[in-house]
Specification:
- It is a single chain.
- With 402 residues, the protein is α/β, with parallel strands linked by helices.
- It has two domains: 130 residues, Aspartate Aminotransferase, domain 1, CATH 3.90.1150; 240 residues, Type I PLP-dependent aspartate aminotransferase-like (Major domain) (Aspartate Aminotransferase, domain 2), CATH 3.40.640.10.
- It is globular, with a radius of gyration of 23 Å.
- 39% of the residues lie in helices and 14% in strands.
- Strand 5, helix 6 and strand 6 form a beta-alpha-beta unit.
- The protein contains eleven helices and 14 strands.
- Helix 2 runs parallel beside helix 7 and helix 8 crosses helix 11.
- The protein binds pyridoxal-5'-phosphate.
């Protein structure tokens, strides 16, 4: 058996919890019916399972079951929310506000709408990753139809002030959408108290299966109109056609049930692990914590390191831990993370960053091993880069002028 690195990339995805898998399995085989089949027991069983998930998800965010629209994940939910509102309300106005640190599943639909003639305001963030509410208010125009601000950031874990944003949006009769892919099951969410009109959810960041998510769509005060982005059999009250994926929907329910039941204790446990990792790491010089120190997801630690090369750092960490760097690597180019540059970081600091995503199955012992190896890696990279710079420099440079 090969030894695999310690998994610390829980913002990218999480393993399916065994309890979730067990709940899903019968729905692949015995209970395989189509929830839309209304004339036999196979369909009824599946429909009952789907209904149960709708109820649990609705209760989790203080919505009603009719306000839940199943999608393939948060990417699709974001697309449906943003493009669906744009298409339904374009006669009212064509201006949308979002934030520089959003996930590409929000930024890209906005850019697409821009190419169609919509106007998009991208709000900056402060040094701690939070938006400035006065900047938000200043961005409002009579033709603003939508504000999209994420609940929890997938790179730096920062939690935006949803209730304050919702309050301001409702005062101005503007629809408020939040991408809560990283937040569901991890922080309290309440669409009434927070005045949220649209909320994107996904199962696979919270120990559920990949390929299932949902969009909450407010039906009262106000009733949000959405233009469907996928047409067909009229499922999900016409907002999202396609046969519902019952096993995944069952897994989504179980994942959210477990996360909510364990939320309080797990938040405490993860906060301790993250604090422990940071206490150990911050001993080294020239290390920066990215994002607000408290107002963040319990399991998120994101750091930047001075004086080391980002790619070399990640390479050095790889044998021991599965983490991500802030930089989005594509085959041809490595661009620094748009989230870290939005914090005002230099290119070097944005490149030399590590995102630790601590999750349900990590232990203190793993965190200690990770900290030891990360510290040793950074120190050894600094030593080599110092020797490299000595070797490259002409000898005379090293001799004091006097
Ligand atoms: C993971 C993630 C998404 C994409 O969700 P999928 O379900 O994988 O499509 C969108 N937004 C945020 C903030 C995420 O973390």
């Amino acid at each position: 058996m090969s030894i695999r690195p310690i998994y610390l990339d829980c913002h990218a995805t999480t393993p399916v919890d065994e309890r979730v898998l067990a709940a899903m399995l019968p729905y692949f085989t015995e209970n395989f019916g189509n929830p839309s089949s209304i004339s036999h027991v196979y369909g009824w069983e599946a429909e009952a399972a789907v209904k149960q998930t709708r109820e649990i998800l609705a209760a989790a965010i203080n919505a009603t079951p009719e306000e839940i629209v199943f999608t393939s994940g948060a990417t699709e939910a974001n697309n449906l929310a943003i493009k669906g509102v744009a298409e339904a309300y374009f006669k009212k106005g064509q201006h949308i506000i979002t934030v520089a640190t959003e996930h590409s599943a929000v930024i890209d639909p906005c850019n697409y709408l821009k190419s169609l003639g919509f106007e998009i305001t991208i709000l900056p963030v402060q040094k701690d990753g939070l938006i400035d509410l006065t900047e938000l208010k200043k961005a409002f125009r009579p033709e603003t139809i939508l504000v999209s601000v994420m609940a929890a950031n997938n790179e730096i874990g920062v939690l935006q002030p949803l209730a304050e944003i919702g309050e301001i949006c409702h005062e101005h009769n503007i629809i408020f959408h939040t991408d809560a892919a990283q937040a569901i099951g991890k922080i309290p969410l309440d669409v009434q108290a927070m005045k949220i009109d649209l909320m994107s959810l996904t199962a696979h960041k919270v120990y559920g299966p990949k390929g299932i998510g949902a969009l909450y769509v407010r039906r009262r005060n106000p009733r949000v109109q959405l233009a469907p982005q996928q047409h067909g059999g009229g499922h999900e009250r016409g907002m999202r056609s396609g046969t519902l994926y019952t096993p995944q929907i069952v897994g989504f329910r179980k994942a959210v049930e477990i996360a909510l039941a364990e939320q309080a204790t797990e938040t405490q446990r993860l906060t301790q692990l993250r604090q422990s990792l940071w206490e150990q790491m911050k001993q080294i010089e020239g290390i920066h914590l990215n994002g607000h120190p408290q107002q963040r997801l319990a399991g998120n630690l994101n750091i930047s390191v001075e004086g080391v090369d980002g790619a070399a750092l990640l390479l050095g960490l790889q044998p021991v831990m599965a983490v991500s760097s802030g930089s989005a690597c594509s085959s041809a180019t490595t661009a620094p993370s748009h989230v870290l540059t939005a914090l005002g970081h230099s290119e070097q600091l944005a490149y030399a960053s590590v995102r630790f995503g601590i999750g349900r199955f990590n232990t203190q012992e793993e965190i200690d091993r990770v900290a030891r190896h990360a510290i040793a890696t950074i120190q050894s990279l600094r030593k080599t880069s110092f020797m490299d710079s000595r070797a490259e420099k002409p000898q005379s440079d090293l001799i004091p002028a006097d």
